[in-house]
Amino acid sequence: MGHGGMSCGMKTIRCIMVLFNIVFFLIGAVLLALGIYVMVDPRFQKLKEIFPLNSNPGIERGLSYLEMMAIVIIVLGSILLIIGFLGCCGAMKQVKLFLTCYAIVIGLIIIFEIAITIYFVVFQTNFKDNFVPKLKQSVKDNYQGPLGLEGNGPKPTPYSLAWDFIMYNFQCCGVESNTDFDGASQWNNTNPWAVSMESSKFRFPLTCCPLSNVQPNWNNLPVQQLNEVANCAVYGTNGCYNKLVELLNSAKTWVIVGAVIILVIELITFIFTLALCCRQRKDTTYYSS
């Protein structure tokens, strides 16, 4: 083989890098679509109201944890799209500058992903202990009930409506139990259909109770039928925390598998990129001598 010719092993490495970068490009497209889906899905649109970055009711809520997660996914997907495209160009053309920048970017992404993984493992461990008490207090301070939609009192806030949608669709009540509404300061719990003093006040929200012949709906509440469950609203059901965790963890296994696959591919690509850079350095040294 002549000087500067590429060995069979290096050609194989280059082909594998091109293939891996095509995979990066496709994964980036999938992550981009997933992030957009999280931003527009009606369920997550309701959930974002109860997961704000800023829990101070006197300040504009701004972005939520779910929206931040979606933005991170969109940014990561966009980066993988760009890296996949540039990586293919760098591997095929073997431009040393491209390969060096590519190796640096891949190395930084690997470090970032490991740091994010460690953070979320720690965050998940402490999530319930730190967040649930705040969520319960927020319910007591901000929940208003759905009756305002029918003109019985002020119109409920997006936060209050978010809880009504969650409880109605998941058939649950409160954060951990139906007693989370005890002492709710803004809740209009007067029963407009009461037939006795005993049932004049709801102990639990109307949306805690399942309606017959009504399908789950994340866009509209069946407020005209709430009188059907006025009796049930006095007795209540179970809490919603586990239901929320199940929803958020519904794709957890696939996310973990996907993240491991991406990390392994990135590590192999990083090693192969260094090999191509070292090969070019040897070629430069040979010709300069």
What does this structure look like?
- The protein is built from seven helices and no strands.
- It is mainly α and 289 residues long.
- α1 (8-40) packs antiparallel against α3, α1 (8-40) packs antiparallel against α7 (252-288) and α3 (65-93) packs antiparallel against α4.
- It is elongated and about 90 Å long.
- The two termini are 19 Å apart.
What percentage of the residues does DSSP assign to strands (E)? under 5%
How many distinct beta strands? 0
Largest sheet: none
Net shape: elongated
N→C terminal distance: 19 Å
State the share of residues found in helices, binned by percent.
Answer: 55-70%
Order of helices and strands: HHHHHHH
Kindly state the mean pLDDT as a whole number? 75
Residue stretches low in confidence (pLDDT < 50, at least 5 long) are: 283-289
How many helices? 7
Assign the structural class, choosing from mainly alpha, mainly beta, alpha/beta, alpha+beta, or little secondary structure. Answer: mainly alpha
Radius of gyration: 27 Å
What attributes characterize this protein structure?
mainly alpha; elongated
Q: What is the strand and helix layout of this fold?
A:
Layout: H1 8-40, H2 42-47, H3 65-93, H4 96-142, H5 158-170, H6 241-248, H7 252-288
Helix pairs in contact: 1-3, 1-7, 3-4, 4-7
Quick gist of this model?
The chain is mostly helical. It has helices at residues 8-40, 42-47, 65-93, 96-142, 158-170, 241-248, 252-288.
